[in-house]
Amino acid sequence: MNEKKLDAFKKRLEDRQRDLRQAINRTAQDGRDADLEWAQDIGDRATNSYDKEFLFHQSNNERQFLQMVEGALDGIRDGVFGLCVSCGNEINPKRLEAVPWTRHCIACQEKLEQGRDAIGLPGQNMLSRERRKWGVPGGRHSAYARADLPQPSASQCPSRSS
Questions:
Q1: Which parts of the chain register pLDDT below 50?
Q2: Structure letter (DSSP) for residue 115
Q3: Whole-model pTM?
Q4: What is the DSSP letter of 90?
Q5: What are the residues facing 90 on neighbouring strands?
Q6: Sequence-separated (6 or more) residues with CB below 8 Å from residue 104
Q7: Residue 160 has what pLDDT?
Q8: Which three-class secondary structure state does DSSP give residue 146?
Q9: Phi, psi of 66 (to 5 degrees)
């Protein structure tokens, strides 16, 4: 990737990073403000509790997004920006334009979303394997089950009836 495009991506990512940090600070302040409200009515307390929970989840999402943006900025500094972390191939420039913080090419992203464990480092999709093994929706005992995995016995899988 040429230096001009890299600088443009860096600027976009730095702007997004700044915006996310401001949003996280704003959400944290809103959460502190919600703590200060002393509601007498049970309905008001329930609303206050819901608001705090909502703000917590919003803040958590913003922090995760910030980590992805900072990871992309690290990739620029390390000279690996635009390379898929799973297969090492270049990520399509149009995909980078749309989602500059992406870590995967389209093919690897599709595999990840399908829950396949055929890419990346060993254990990367351990959760997907466990879901298949123990019958969690989308797992071993569902319509998406994989025939190449061993069938857990009834004693190993509490969701199976004998």
A1: 119-154, 156-162
A2: T
A3: 0.61
A4: B
A5: 83
A6: 84, 85, 86, 91, 112
A7: 42
A8: coil
A9: -60, -40
